[in-house]
Amino acid sequence: MMADDNGKVALDRELRLNQLYLAIIARYKDYIEEKEHISVAELTTLVTPKDESVLAKANDIRGSFGAYSYVEHFYEASLKAYAFVRDEIEDVQMPLEFWLTPNETMKFGVGDTVDKNTLFCSLLIALGNPSTKVFVYVRGASRSIKTVFELNGLFYVTEFGSTTKRMASRDEFIGALTVDDDTIAYEFNDQSFVDVS
Q1: Full-model pTM
Q2: Three-state DSSP class for 69?
Q3: d(CA 80, CA 76)
Q4: Which of 3, 80, 83, 195 has the smallest count of CB within 10 Å of its CB?
Q5: Are residues 46 and 118 in contact, defined by beta-carbon separation less than 8 angstroms?
């Protein structure tokens, strides 16, 4: 067999194994999702600013400034953290509901919108901003997930696939939302879960 044939055999084997893994996932989807279920109040466990890999990435970002100063550098550090998550974490929709930790999201380089926002939130807290939260807004069939934080008296709203918005206050942000009986809105980080609907 030629080297090229060996590569085709290996690729074919990998493809067959991936198809097998998908078949297993499909067969046990309900069981996995049942075991994977967490309550909304338990979402705080997904934000892990003290995780070793999160701290290592935050330290890497800090290191790009030489002598990092939260007051002087946090906003620019937040842009670097955003660029890392946007560029290095591939957006993947799993065939089942499965929560990834920020460590797993970085390790595998993939995640859905929740995974990306919990990683981003974890990084910003690790960079020194404990006000950072993941904000979830569900209205009817529409769902929006953002990362929000306060800095120097302003309120910042970041949504992957969009631009960061700067607002005068958290109240301005909440006031701009439509909240009615069809709305679910909450925010969380590693310290708290708050229902805002």
Answers
A1: 0.82
A2: coil
A3: 6
A4: 3
A5: yes
